[in-house]
Design a protein that fits this description.
The complex is a heterodimer.
Chain A (H helix, E strand, L loop, with lengths): L7 H28 L4 H10 L20 H14 L1 H7 L3 H10 L2 H7 L12 E3 L15 E5 L2 E12 L6 E7 L5 E7 L5 E6 L10 E12 L3 E2 L4 H32 L1 E2 L2 E2 L4 H29 L5 H25 L11 H8 L12
Parallel strand pairs in A: 1-4
Antiparallel strand pairs in A: 2-3, 3-7, 4-5, 5-8, 6-7, 9-10
Helix pairs in contact in A: 1-3, 3-4, 3-7, 7-8, 7-9, 7-10, 8-9, 9-10
Chain B lengths: L6 H27 L6 H19 L13 H15 L1 H6 L4 H10 L2 H9 L9 E4 L15 E5 L2 E12 L1 H5 L5 E7 L9 E7 L5 E6 L10 E12 L3 E2 L13 H5 L1 H30 L15 H28 L5 H25 L1 H5 L5 H8 L9 H13 L8
Parallel strand pairs in B: 1-4
Antiparallel strand pairs in B: 2-3, 3-7, 4-5, 5-8, 6-7
Helix pairs in contact in B: 1-3, 3-9, 3-10, 9-10, 9-11, 9-13, 10-11, 11-13, 11-14
Classes of the chains: A alpha+beta, B alpha+beta.
The complex binds flavin-adenine dinucleotide.
Chain lengths: ~350, ~400
């Protein structure tokens, strides 16, 4: 039966994440953006919340009672991104490895890889999805995986690879000999995996992003996660879209607060219809995008392919967040353009959702 | 969280779909072209079905059981999306208590509910209607100038109501009723506005004009003149006291009716837009054009992008509508969400149906196809029961925490 209420577990997770985002993440956001780093203490505090551990079943050292849920993942992603997008991506990066292994990995791969992510402290994860050319789409990778004896040889260029320097493994996405999308768990230090310079972007300043080159990078057969890797990237899109909703929500609430304080022509600016209606539309669009994305997530949790639902929600959320962040700045007028306020940062971060691919996972 | 349709929902949709396909679509064009005529076969068939349904419900046969969460509002929306998919004008013409009934249901006493709704589905087809709008106002409903004066055991009503949906069929073609908004004292503003049940056959009540419209032409929209119209004293809905804000039976109480009816208006628009999008998709399929949801950015054609966008927009409107219903069914206050659904649907269905006409080219513009009609039918979604702007006002007040005095 159609119902939009959270269950008890979801409610609890949401409250935990939302208050952490408000109390710890948001206050750290501007400094993280200016200094291009995420504070170690924040990473440690977030690790204590168990957001990664809670998605891994007990059998592999976590404490999830069931398979990882895209809906729950979306709640976490939205909540943290409402605090700050770059920090959220950093904190949730272990999922870039954990989720693919849980969803597609063999028993052996799960045994080999998951415990490393469930220790005392945070271990960064990474995924190499995006490529530095126009017309990129995840179903049409230019990076190739060629069969070679008992293993695979990876060749191609990737960009916006999060935490590539620090992550012990990078999940590399490539087209195999048949053109199918495949995912490989590549250990750092593998010959032929060349990590380039840290990339500087319009937004996401606090997140370490790298370009990488794969030059005859040879991995054993056991590095390949069997099955359809497109499934993983659809899950990634849902996580990413949830973060877009989080950024939109942050912008909306900030703009509402401002509109109720700022005096213009003898009234509060929120009492002017041009602004009030803009806020009403922002609120409606944020809610609409969230529901659309939840539906896509729910479909994934049902085991459906959901290619259509994910594609529609992804596009919708990417468009929505651009409009909402832009209008959110507009509500503040010139002050929105000044870095004392977070609005301009949300515009820069929001602009990326139509571009990002695979930098978030559930 | 659950996005699956219950058995009850599937059943309701299937039934409505059958009526839409077999009873509405075949006569859809005819009653668009022949405005101000009555499809009696359709009325009678729908009436018999409603009667049977009402009997089954009163015998306890069709209760939704003892489920934890009700889905009554949700089921109504789903049903109406299907019926409007069949034909929005005919859907509005189905003999039922309509908006008038919703008002009685919301603020009527048990005795009034029994008197006007309890035996509604007896005898010949009947209609209920609601008359708020007057020549000098629409959105600003506190401007009601129609007066109600108590004389002995009666209320005496005077004034002119316009744009009353189903007013003609309620008053002239059946033993129906119209819920009329009138003021007890114009100087007292909102608090003095009350609603009154005016039965068909009341002397002094006349339908003086039938509007010619752009769309939903099968539905009648009329002017009603009240000239010393006398109704029994107990036909007032709620109290006759001029009470302050917030109490039941007050202006706010009647306005709360819209929390349940706005999602329904949204759903009816969504049905029309879905019809248009389905036909467009068929036209494209006949030309060998299929939508590739995961094609690369430069492989995807503009057409594909447009269709994907329309599908996403329509589903977004639908989910907002379902959300508003779900909240109502859970007994949660849903004014903001009801307005979000209505505002979003109003925009989306207008744009989608217009875009479908455009994308189908000359076919879309021709009356040989239904696309142009659906474009005409969809627009009303953004006007009645609160225009786009009025719903934006409600949403904005809600998120900003403003009263109607602070933001208007
Ligand atoms: C086919 C049809 C059926 C109808 N059925 C019924 C019915 O059954 N019963 C009934 O009582 N009425 C009915 N109506 C009337 C309908 O509800 C009104 O037309 C509607 O509420 C708008 O009022 P109006 O037309 O007077 O526009 P106005 O109120 O004059 O508005 C004109 C424009 O100004 C905008 N506007 C108004 N106030 C504000 C504001 N404060 N801020 C910003 N913008 C504003 C409006 O959005 C609109 O765009 C029907 C109308 C039609 C066309």
């Amino acid at each position: 039966m159609i119902d939009f209420e959270f269950d008890e577990e979801q409610q609890l997770i949401r409250e935990t994440v939302t208050s952490f985002a408000a109390e710890r993440v948001r206050p750290a956001a501007r400094e993280a953006d200016e200094t291009a780093t995420v504070a170690e203490s924040l990473v440690d505090a977030a690790w204590e919340l168990g957001l990664i551990q809670g998605s891994v079943p007990e059998a592999y050292g976590g404490y999830a009672s069931q398979a990882p849920s895209a809906v729950t993942g979306a709640l976490i992603a939205e909540g943290l991104a409402e605090g700050d997008l770059a920090i959220a991506l950093h904190l949730l990066s272990p999922r870039l490895v954990v989720d693919p292994v849980l969803v597609l990995g063999t028993e052996q791969q799960k045994q080999d890889l998951l415990p490393a992510y469930l220790g005392e402290r945070f271990v960064p994860g990474s995924a190499a999805v995006l490529e530095p050319h126009i017309n990129f789409h995840f179903t049409r990778m230019r990076t190739t995986a060629r069969r070679d004896g008992g293993g695979w040889v990876l060749d191609g260029d990737k960009c916006m690879v999060p935490l590539a320097k620090a992550a012990p493994w990078i999940v590399v996405y490539a087209a195999d000999d048949s053109g199918a999308l495949a995912a490989f768990v590549v250990p750092s230090g593998t010959p032929g995996l060349e990590i380039g310079e840290r990339e500087k972007m319009l937004g996401l300043h606090a997140l370490e992003l790298y370009s990488i080159a794969l030059r005859g990078c040879r991995v054993p057969d056991s590095a390949r996660l069997p099955g359809d890797a497109a499934k993983l990237l659809r899950r990634a899109r849902v996580a990413q879209s949830a973060m877009a909703v989080g950024v939109a929500k942050a912008t909306l609430d900030y703009a509402i607060g401002y509109a109720k304080e700022r005096d213009v022509f003898g009234v509060k600016v929120g009492q002017k219809q041009a602004i009030a209606f803009m806020l009403a539309d922002m609120a409606t669009e944020t809610d609409a995008a969230r529901l659309l994305n939840w539906e896509a997530a729910w479909n994934l949790d049902q085991g459906n392919e959901a290619a259509r639902e994910v594609a529609l929600a992804h596009r919708y959320c990417a468009d929505m967040v651009m409009t909402v962040t832009d209008n959110g700045l507009q509500v503040l007028g010139g002050h929105g353009f000044i870095r004392d306020h977070p609005s301009e940062m949300w515009v820069r971060n929001g602009r990326g959702f139509a571009t990002f691919e695979g930098i978030a996972s559930i | 969280m659950d996005f699956s349709l219950s058995k009850a929902a599937q059943g309701r949709i299937a039934m409505a779909r059958m009526a839409a396909e077999s009873l509405m679509r075949p006569i859809s064009r005819q009653y668009d072209e022949e405005e101000h005529t009555d499809p009696w076969d359709f009325f009678n068939t729908m009436w018999e079905a409603s009667k049977a349904n009402a009997e089954a419900t009163s015998l306890g046969g069709k209760k939704s059981g003892d489920k934890k969460v009700s889905e009554n509002t949700l089921l109504a929306c789903m049903q109406i999306e299907e019926l409007a998919w069949g034909d929005a004008g005919l859907y509005l013409s189905i003999p039922n208590p309509g908006l008038g009934g919703a008002a009685v249901q919301a603020v009527g006493t048990p005795e009034q509910k029994q008197r006007f709704l309890g035996s509604f589905y007896k005898g010949k087809p009947k209609w209920g209607a609601m008359a708020i709008t007057e020549p000098h106002f629409g959105s600003d409903s506190k401007q009601v100038a129609t007066t109600a004066v108590r004389e002995g055991d009666e209320w005496v009503l005077n004034g002119t109501k316009i744009f009353c949906t189903a007013g003609h069929r309620a008053l002239n073609e059946s033993d129906g009723f119209v819920v009329v908004w009138a003021t007890l004292d114009r100087s007292k503003g909102r608090a003095a506005i009350k609603s009154f049940i005016v039965p068909a056959g009341t002397p002094g009540v006349t339908v003086t004009r039938l509007e010619d419209k752009m769309g939903i032409r099968a539905s009648d929209t009329v002017t009603i003149t009240l000239d010393n119209a006398r109704i029994p004293a107990d036909n007032i809905l709620g109290t006759a006291e001029i009470v302050e804000k917030g109490s039941t039976g007050s202006f706010g109480g009647v306005m709360a009716t819209f929390d349940s009816t706005r999602p329904i208006v949204a759903a009816s628009g969504i049905g029309v837009a879905r019809a248009a999008l389905e036909v467009l998709t068929q036209v494209l399929a006949e030309q060998g054009i299929a939508i590739r949801y995961e094609a690369g950015p430069s492989e995807q054609t503009v057409l594909e992008r447009e269709v994907m966008n329309m599908e996403a927009q329509l589903q977004a409107a639908r989910l907002l509508t379902w959300k508003a219903c779900n909240m109502m069914d859970r007994g949660q206050r849903n004014s903001r969400e009801a307005s979000m659904a209505k505002a979003k649907a109003g925009t989306v269905v207008t744009r989608v149906t217009q875009k479908c006409v455009e994308l189908a080219g000359a076919l879309g513009y021709s009356r040989k196809m239904m696309l142009e009609k659906w474009m005409r039918d969809a627009k009303i979604t953004d006007i009645y029961e609160g225009t786009q702007q009025i719903n934006q006002l409600i949403i904005a007040r809600s998120i900003l925490g403003y009263s109607s005095g602070e933001l208007n």
